[in-house]
Amino acid sequence: MSLARQALNLPNLISLSRLALVAVFVWLVFGADEIGWAGVLLGIIGGTDWVDGYLARRLDQVTELGKFLDPLADRLAVAVSVVAGLVVGVLPPWFAWALIAREVLIGVGALYGWSRGVTRLDVRRLGKLATLLLYFSITGFYLGRGFQVPFLVVAAYVVGVPGLVAYYAVGVQYLADMRDAIGRVGGDDGDRVS
Questions:
Q1: How many other C-beta atoms can be found within 10 angstroms of the C-beta atom of residue 85?
Q2: Packing angle of the helix pair 125-146, 150-183 (nearest 10 deg)
Q3: Which of 30, 36, 58, 139 registers the highest number of CB atoms within 10 A of its CB?
Q4: What are phi and psi of 115, to 5 degrees?
């Protein structure tokens, strides 16, 4: 199937829409100074995370492009929301820097594995759970601070701390997976992680 035909299936259009919404999120934060509405949009981006994958499996439209776009949309949304949240003071600095440090470590590990011939790692359930918790937490910080609802900020901490712990735990698991994959290079392994 051609790349153009893959891009036009419904799950991939949803993934592409999620990527486009990240640009709108950036505008809401920096251009419009609408932190609360940026949080609403981030909630929509995170809330539709499962939709594209579900539809791809349900409609038998799983494509290599989709396998690339879905995690790209997640990584980009989280990275942009964390950096923007750090810059405008929405996220606690220790929380934002802990997320940034984890992403850098995993990125370096993925590049190292890729340079050794690893092209794929399976996503772990703990990674999906950690990403979900962090989406809730980061969104909660934006909503709570943007709309001045202290309860949402407290909830963001309550969900975010375990999400951060799980994010690091699964990061360690991914690095071990990468080490094992490097040891058996030549199979269908890679760097798709959550």
A1: 25
A2: 150
A3: 139
A4: -65, -20
Mean pLDDT for the stretch of residues 98-124: 88
- Closest alpha carbon to 126 in 161, 72, 164, 154: 164
CB-count exposure of residue 88 (10 Å: 0-12, 13-18, 19+) = middle
Confidence of residue 47 (pLDDT cuts 50, 70, 90): confident
Q: What is the pTM of this model?
A: 0.86
7: which 2 tokens? Answer: 């891009």
Residue 161 and residue 155: Cα distance in Å, rounded?
10
Look at residue 54 in the predicted model and tell me its pLDDT: 87
Domain boundaries, the chain: 3-183
Report the SS3 class of residue 120.
strand
CATH 1.20.120.1760 fits 3-183, yes or no: yes
Record the tokens describing residue 25, joined without a space: 């999120």
**Residue 121, both tokens:** 């790692």
Neighbour count for residue 97 (Cβ, 10 Å): 13
Residue 135 token pair: 């989406």
pLDDT band at 164 (very low <50, low <70, confident <90, very high): very high
What pLDDT does 45 receive? Answer: 92
